[in-house]
Amino acid sequence: AGFSEHDTYRAQQIRQGLITRDQALTQAAEDNRPHMDELADFAKHTGFNLEEVLTRINSIEKLY
Predict the structure, then answer these.
(1) Which of 3, 37, 43, 55 could bond 50 through an S-S bridge, CB–CB 3.0 to 4.6 Å?
(2) What is the pLDDT of residue 63?
(3) In angstroms, what CA-CA distances link 20 with 2, 8, 26, 35, 51?
(4) In the structure, what pLDDT confidence band is assigned to residue 60 with cuts at 50, 70 and 90?
(5) Element (H, E) at 24
(6) Is the separation of the CB atoms in 54 and 43 below 8 Å?
(7) Do 32 and 9 contact (CB within 8 A), yes or no?
(8) pLDDT digit string (tens) for 8-22?
């Protein structure tokens, strides 16, 4: 459905009355932001070409 684990977690927090919807939207936007430094480090340790992977991902036809 296009929801991440962060989105689901924040939705649960809203339902439990722990945070507001606006707080959840703000935090989910931050949670879902890619962390390029971590991706680069992971790529280095596992031996895959991050630039090639990102190029392929970005070339996938968008459905929206």
Answers:
(1) 43
(2) 85
(3) 21, 14, 10, 25, 38
(4) very high
(5) helix 21-31
(6) no
(7) no
(8) 999 999 999 999 999
